[in-house]
Amino acid sequence: MRSALAGPAWFGCSARRSRSREETPAEAGDMSTAMNFGSKSFQPRPPDKGAFPLDHFGECGAFKEQFLECLRQSGSESSACRPRAMAYLQCRMERQLMANEPLEKLGFKDLIDEKSEAKPEKL
Predict the structure, then answer these.
(1) How far apart are CA 71 and CA 78, in angstroms?
(2) How far apart are alpha carbons 93 and 83 in whole angstroms?
């Protein structure tokens, strides 16, 4: 009969293995070397777009709330809320919370064209 200290049968021989010679840490199963997947070190880099500071002081909070309220009222139909999204991004750019980008590049060219057509020309 097996002793209670011997452990399960599948554990068997490998647990009783003795080191007949000095083994290197890799041979002994050292986890620190087993988890090293190569000598290359990972160098993180920021994304090309989309990385900007959070609005910790709520400088554009009113614009954000207007946009979110619009989404709630429209049943999450974002196209109905594009003017509010544009205003929110303009606020962030004005306060250096994101890089200044032309609104045309951010997908608001059609809204800018509508604004310029709606303004009467000054004589």
Answers:
(1) 6
(2) 15
Decide: 108 and 86 in contact? Cβ < 8 Å.
yes
Q: What is the C-alpha separation between 20 and 80, in angstroms, rounded?
A: 75
92: exposed, middle or buried (Cβ count in 10 Å: 0-12, 13-18, 19+): buried
Q: Which of 49, 69, 71, 52 is nearest to 61 (CA)?
A: 69
Cα–Cα distance measured from residue 116 to residue 114, given in angstroms and rounded to the nearest whole number: 6
User: 51 and 92 in contact (C-beta within 8 Å)?
Assistant: no
Q: Tell me what pLDDT residue 99 has.
A: 85
The model carries a pTM of: 0.54
